[in-house]
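Feature request, filed as a ticket because there's no other form

It would be nice if the structure record came with a short human-readable summary line next to the tokens. Right now we just get the raw output. Example of a typical job, pasted below so the devs can see what we mean:
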Amino acid sequence: MTNPKLINLRLEQLTRTIPDAVDVTYTSKGEATIVVDPRIVADVVEFLRRHSLTQYKIMVDMSATDYPSRENRFDVVYLLLSIAYNNRLRVKTLVADGQPIESVRRLFYAAHWMEREIWDLFGIFFSNHPDLRRILTDYGFQGHPFRKDFPLNGYTEARYDEKTKSVRTLPVEITQEFRSFDFERPWEAMTDRS
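Raw output as currently delivered:
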């Protein structure tokens, strides 16, 4: 079994050679996170996959998070695994709305579905992806549901029409009025039940 401290030392040495790598941080378990410029994230992932001292040959997961108050509102995180060195690595990049990222599908076949899912739910575009289309929502769906500014009840709803025997898509109708709750004095809203 390889010493995790030795791997982290190698990783720090390698990140000094990677241009534009912003930061390397470690979790309490000793797992590293590299923050990378989105213009070179595919090159850095390829470097980490092919270099003999890292060999991160498996992409375990890929995810995104939305922070609408930031200029670069999306975090895209690649979770990589090196079987040769028994080590995990997170590669994180901060992406602005509308800024494309190069696809890593040519390096990891698993990225094919993961990038499609992130495109569908967050609207982050992956350039050079061979089949970037919706995967979880309907093809006529408007917007991206995992963005924080997407309304909780959506824009449209599907209903089955008994007369026409078909599914109709209609604008959302909210029959209940918006309620304002007073969390400072919730007991005043209660009625006496005795």
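Something like this underneath would help us a lot:
The chain has one domain: 4-146.
The mean pLDDT is 82.
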